[in-house]
## 1
Amino acid sequence: MELLSKQNSWKVWQGVVLQIVCVLLLATAGGAMQFYWGMTGLVTTELMYLAIAILIAVVHKTSLKEVFPIKKISLVEFIGLCIFFAGGFLINIVAGGISFMIFPDAQQEAQGLNDFMAGTSPFLLVLIVAVLPAICEEAIERGAVLSHLRSIKKDWVIVLLMGLFFGIFHLSFVRFLNTACLGAILTYMVVKKNNILYSVLFHFFNNFISVLATIVSAGAESELDVSSIDISRIAPIYLVIGCAGPVLLVLGNMLMCPKEFRKRQWIYAGSISFILLCLGSGLFMRSIYNEDSIVVKSTFNYEVDRSNLEQRYSFEIDDDGVYIVSVASMLDHGTATLVIKDEDGEVIASDGSKRLALISDTYELHEGTYILEIDSDSDAIGATADIDVRIYSLE
């Protein structure tokens, strides 16, 4: 990494002390301001870090342009940054899945963050949650703290340390892996490009998507109550969703930092992506589709004739909750329609008219009796109908 003109005055131990001070300030002054002042306290906390970052540069008598280097980004580099961000975002999804598996109550903290932001206008949310952290946190972390570590010869050591620092900085065991990965990725860009604008933009993109998700979820009405779902059981699917992350990181890095690209990186990235895909799929199937979670399991067949064109099958749900409902009807010929109704006759799900009719989705079901209606058309007479009904609890 490029050294500062007065690097001798920027000691590594000073950077560690500065990071500790930042964490202590967040736990004390920052926490108090956010508790009593809410969003205003969050703004004050961010500005406090920006002021400290600038003050550190002044104390060391080092140009702000060196501590917070900003350079022009070419179109190709910006495209690379966007692809790199997509890869980093997917990696954070993987990290989130791992965190959910380790800390099943992580969803409560995420809900707490949403509640904290509730009632704030979208414009202010973008400003406070996306813009300010991207500037202020990057100034203190990738600016002031990182400048103390520039003398470390191994870039990967700097990236690792700054990742750990950023994870600790957010004071959350649940989010540690996510924030540590984010911190490492942000640091990598500044280390390789000596341009803090990369990490500022990446940080903004990351937080903006979180804000956007909060705004959309607040305005959407969902009939599915996910609060009762055991998040640790569906968490492995996050590994599948984010499996393309390593490949996108390599592609983005190739455009953004062509001098750092090596062909073998494709092999590493592809291997990691394949492992994430297989591991996530296997763990998800093992977690969801097992005998302990199945509440309804029935497989039967019959020959369709005029007397049974309309078949009825009932099943019981013993507890209110969220369930995966999987119902399939297969005919040799002709078509059938599947309809699931509750005790009041309200349609819960349906599919048809097809030779292979399939209902497969997640539903919030209440305790009671449900009816599966299987209606075959006259073309199905003489066909063999194979029916498979499986319902899994997500709690």
## 2
Amino acid sequence: RSFHAEGLNRDWPYVVYLPSGYRADQNRYPVLYLLHGNNGEPMDWVTQGQLQTTVDGLIARHEVPPVVIVMPQGGTDWYVDRKEKMETAFFQDLLPEIESHFAVEEGRDGRAIGGVSMGGFGALRYTLEHPDMFCGTLLLSPAVYASDPPPSSAARHVGVFGDHQFDAQIWRTLNYPALWKPYFARPWRVPFFIAAGDDDLVIQAEASLLYTRLREAGNPAALRIVDGGHVWPVWRELLPAALRYTLACVH
């Protein structure tokens, strides 16, 4: 599907998973937004992450509730208002689009978010900025860094954090430590499922650090480090546990 997003001033495609037996005229379903990685596609969740089979199975075994899952196209925008107004479009265009076309919950208790790699960067930011809007968050090998991104990070090369070359000042204003104090000044605490592969050296260390900081601050979080690198087989393996943990928040 795609729709015209005012914030982007263009058509914006997204993929939707509907649970078996979905009926628009019955009850409202919880909704999970999943953000893909740098240069990825929304369908990666389905084709490489085997999302459909995984979620079908979890629902059939009553391990998660029937859920609608929305996977928008993020390109290489890092889900921030830089190259395009991607963050503005997410909240002002995509959420209303989904809530008007699908039978989904419209309150915090029925909405969760997650992401892989660059999508983890986006999901973490959106949660820290809008804890009143999400009840749970999953981060798979998130491209999150407590300071500046390493030389190998795509964040330095995509033309998002700086017009011609990487600008550390722009990065720092958008990076999660800048959102920490405002988040903890508000009443909501969102549980985070954080996971990475042990061969993904920088990211598994940064993921563990984020987990530690959340727990030290009294915020619920879970951490899983599994065998493997920064690849879909790792995320596919982590998905069932991530979904069970994150969707436990929905009512």
## 3
Amino acid sequence: MAFHPPNPPSYTIETLPDGSTVLKFAHVEMQQARELLSGSPVRVDVRLLVTHRKQTIPLFHFCYPGAKTTILWSHANAMDCGEMYFFFVQFAERLRVNVAAYDYSGYGAATGVPTERDIYADARASYEYLCSCNAGVPDWHLVLYGQSIGSVPTLWLATHYPVKGVILHAPLLSGLRFLIPPADGFCSPGGCCSPVCVYALCDPFPNIKRIKKVTSPVLLMHGTLDKTVDFSHTLKLHARCPAPFKREPYIIKGAGHENVVDSDPEMYFTQVREFVRSVRAAGSYPPLAPTTDSRAVAPASGSHLGAHGGHHGSLVGGHVGGGVGGAMLDYERICTSCSETPQSANPGRAVARTSPAVHSSPAVRSSPARCVHSNDWTLHSNDWTPADTSCVDVLEPPHTPSMARS
């Protein structure tokens, strides 16, 4: 599945001699429109984050005064944050929330080229920055929003980190299912002999598997006449979403892939507003499952952000800050073929060797861990079973993004 970053991008970020940065739109009309928003209560802050894959990505933080909820937005393909800038201002103002939007590697002012592993790293850097002491956003105030291909890093985050809720806007089931039409029979393009089945283990962007692992409320929305991502993708994702976190989907009759909002703006904002209110009023998500393993060690604090003269925060259990009900512990997932004592993925992180029952618990949040057997940095399969010893989603060691402010 190809990425299509806008070329040229809609904006640039210029670094001044004093080290600060300035956002400039490519089109004069957009620059003038930005100046007209000077009276808006929404304040816009742009930061540059360095991901653990060594790419620099911009994070646009639209802050509404007194907002208690932050929406972490992963945008669609063939656009960048500059093109969404004015919509984000409107979104933040109408819903009275903060919006944090980032560009994928290779999009907008971001460096590198887009790959599946890079967009996960981009989302992770944005999440970790927001939950750091620099941004001061508690993870239980975060709602993830993924539009189209943005549903991929959104669901990846939702199955690896604690969040308050998840919104999926015209999401796709997976990479192969996006390319191949729905099955009409065994011999149809989407049937049992199709590439979807034959190459299932190599299917990129596996939202269809990850949706089963979410532990936060999920709102799906889709247009019935979507010619880019078939409407059936949302129906199947909704069917596979765990019942406790499934919400009534917002279905827009007659809408396509790009006009879900424009078809009925008032209804769109009402649906999102009510969802945000409901998850905000629902209380905290459950804390991580406790362990009785005597080898569990207490996490140390004092890991510093690699900021340019920024504030320092403590890294506890792979998350900056504490968490619901105190510090969050990370549980290291180990191959069943490993017989050695688990090694710490990162000094100062809590490590426990867990049982299959804990592995499958939806309350456990996995994090990058060293697999003793393969000696690689891995996250084990979310579909872990006693018979499954495979290691997937290879990542670099945990990393807290460094930042530059504009």
